[in-house]
Amino acid sequence: MTAPQRGYSATKDQLTARLRRIEGQVRGIEKMVDDDRYCIDVLTQISAVQAALDKVGLGLLDGHARHCMHEGARTGRADEVAEEMMAAIGRLMKRG
Fold this sequence. Notes:
Keywords: Copper. By secondary structure, the protein is mostly helical.
């Protein structure tokens, strides 16, 4: 059975590699806490992870807009797919 095409299908390997790097950064932050590193240094690394995740999220939104929304328009589900995307943007923008 063939996996469904997603907006990120063409760059899945790059996306997976980026997520693994982020995972490594998070493990590094955990080690910093275990090693009692300076608070500001830990916060700086947390900020870097958040920025990296934001970049992944924006890339996924771009793929969704270019692929999934196009597909939704083609199949008569444009409004549904647009609402879904706007909800995802809202979730990404919530912080704190």
